[in-house]
Structures are given as structure tokens and as C-alpha cells.
Write a structure and sequence with these properties.
208 residues, alpha+beta, three-stranded antiparallel β-sheet, Protein FAM200B-like
């Protein structure tokens, strides 16, 4: 019987070598092969074959083509703190006094007629600021201000799409203002119109 043939397996240490690390990759489907991510071809997992491939004209041409078409990193102008504050103030005004729709024109108006002309805010950005920045901030402040003694006011409502919601308001003694405060707390969707669904909605609200 002849001597069994030895198959060289991929060695991870090759990935650290200067001549290989830019293009060499392990080929997971076959441990006896390597993969060139520049040329998108498989190679036998032998050092001689890897060196030969790296020095081949085909590989060098692929590397040159990538360098030519490689895009420069895009540099973004940093947004100033003043701009962030202005956009947050506009979003806060809109959330308290009107619908979000006018913010498209309000942002352009502020840019045109006021000295601070770096404001770029429209409906999508305004909505994200309200939901992801302002709402968590004020909810955190409200939780700290409420304490342990409060009362809840609830009212079931139906929107134009015939979805049932439970509006929840809260009455509490404010620690910071030293007076009784009544304010909106949450709007929870009702799965069903019964007492159990209302209780579930209230519990969900209080767990937030």
C-alpha cells in the first residue's frame, strides 16, 4: 500500500502575515483551501500556492483596481451644540402646541430669517427628537418628581381607525414645585374593551 497523501490545512497564523493579511481569508467549506477576497477565488492551503497567487498578475491587477475605485471617507461637518438646542426647542414647541406637519416650513423660516442658520429639521427628524430625546428626558424627570403617592385618571377613547386606547393622567404632589400637579402620563392601546384589558394597560404603563 502506498503512503497516505497528506493534505495541508489552513493555518490561521497566515492571516497575521503582512503579505497575506490584506486579502487572505479562511475558506469555511473546505479546511484544505484558502480564499482570496480580492479576486474571489479559492486557493490550496499551501504557503507556496498563497505566495504564487499573491505575486500573480491577476491578483496584482485586482488590487490595483480596488485602490483606484476605493472611495475616500466622507467627512461630515460636526453639528454644534447651539444647533442641537435650537432643534430640540422647536421640537418641544411643536409637541406642546401644534401638529408636527408645520415643522417643515417652520425650520426653513428660522433658517432664512434668524441669525442661526444651521437648523435642518423636518417631520421625520422632529418626530425622532420627540420620541427618542425629549420623551425619555421628561419621563425620567416625572418619575423622580412623583414619589410614592399619586392618583390615576383613566379614559377610554377610539381613534379614527377604530383602535381603542386608554388615556392615563396622573395627579401627584410635586417634590420640586411643592404643589399638586395634574398631567398626562401615557396612552396605552387596548386589546379588548373590558375591565381586564384596562387593568393590563394600567399595569403596562406603571412598569415603564
Amino acid at each position: 500500500m502506498g503512503k497516505p497523501q497528506y493534505f495541508q490545512k489552513f493555518r490561521k497564523i497566515w492571516l497575521q502575515e503582512k503579505s497575506f493579511k490584506e486579502w487572505l481569508q479562511e475558506y469555511e467549506q473546505d479546511p484544505t483551501k484558502a480564499f482570496c477576497k480580492t479576486c474571489c477565488v479559492t486557493i490550496r492551503a499551501k504557503r507556496f500556492d498563497l505566495v504564487s497567487h499573491g505575486e500573480s498578475q491577476k491578483h496584482k491587477s485586482s488590487v490595483s483596481a480596488i485602490k483606484i475605485h476605493q472611495q475616500n471617507s466622507i467627512k461630515f461637518k460636526p453639528i454644534s451644540l447651539e444647533t442641537n438646542r435650537s432643534e430640540a426647542a422647536l421640537s418641544l414647541f411643536v409637541s406642546n402646541h401644534c401638529a408636527i406637519l408645520p415643522i417643515d416650513h417652520l425650520g426653513e423660516l428660522c433658517n432664512t430669517h434668524f441669525t442661526h442658520n444651521s437648523i435642518k429639521i423636518h417631520r421625520t427628524k422632529c418626530s425622532k427628537i420627540i420620541v427618542n430625546v425629549l420623551a425619555p428626558y421628561f419621563m425620567s424627570n416625572l418619575k423622580e418628581d412623583i414619589g410614592d403617592m399619586y392618583s390615576l385618571l383613566i379614559d377610554e377613547s377610539t381613534d379614527i381607525a377604530v383602535h381603542k386606547f386608554l388615556g392615563i393622567a396622573i395627579i401627584y404632589l410635586s417634590k420640586s414645585q411643592k404643589k399638586i400637579i395634574t398631567t398626562f402620563l401615557s396612552l396605552e392601546e387596548l386589546v379588548e374593551c373590558n375591565a381586564m384589558a384596562i387593568v393590563t394597560a394600567i399595569k403596562t404603563c406603571l412598569k415603564k
